Automatic annotation (TrEMBL):
Domain named HTH lysR-type: residues: 47-108
Gene3D superfamilies in the cross-refs: Winged helix-like DNA-binding domain superfamily/Winged helix DNA-binding domain
GO MF annotation list: cis-regulatory region sequence-specific DNA binding; DNA-binding transcription factor activity; molybdenum ion binding
Name of this protein: Molybdenum transport regulatory protein ModE
GO biological process: regulation of DNA-templated transcription
PANTHER family for this protein: DNA-BINDING TRANSCRIPTIONAL DUAL REGULATOR MODE, TRANSCRIPTIONAL REGULATOR MODE
SUPFAM superfamilies: Winged helix' DNA-binding domain
Domain of life, per lineage: Bacteria
Taxonomic lineage: Bacteria, Pseudomonadati, Nitrospirota, Thermodesulfovibrionia, Thermodesulfovibrionales
Amino acid sequence: MKKRGRKALKDPHHFCVTGGGKHEGYELKGKIWIDGNEGTFLGYGRIALLEKIKQYGSISKAAKSINMSYRQAWRLISSMNRQAGKPFVETQIGGKNGGGTKLTEAGEKAIEQFWRIHKKFKKFLSKEIKNFEI
């Protein structure tokens, strides 16, 4: 019997890995995330979710676009909101113009800061691989 549902990735974290260029056949790679009181606070996957929410204005569409369940998306959003002490995401219930979801100023700032740190991390990896010798 064929299983239904989403296709599993070989390495679900492969998209989190960043490299810093190659030097003499070697490449320095790494992942970056920010831990909080409950464990992971922000990382590549959580930032991708926030960006997709901004793009689609919907948690379900955002989750689907990154092959994540709606339930898991809500867990991540709740975790980020709790750990930040202020909401990154606000939802509006239906009505005349329909419901929707949007990022708050804090959510926008989190994305901006994460990518700033990520860029510096990538630059660090690139610099350090040039000093690697065997």
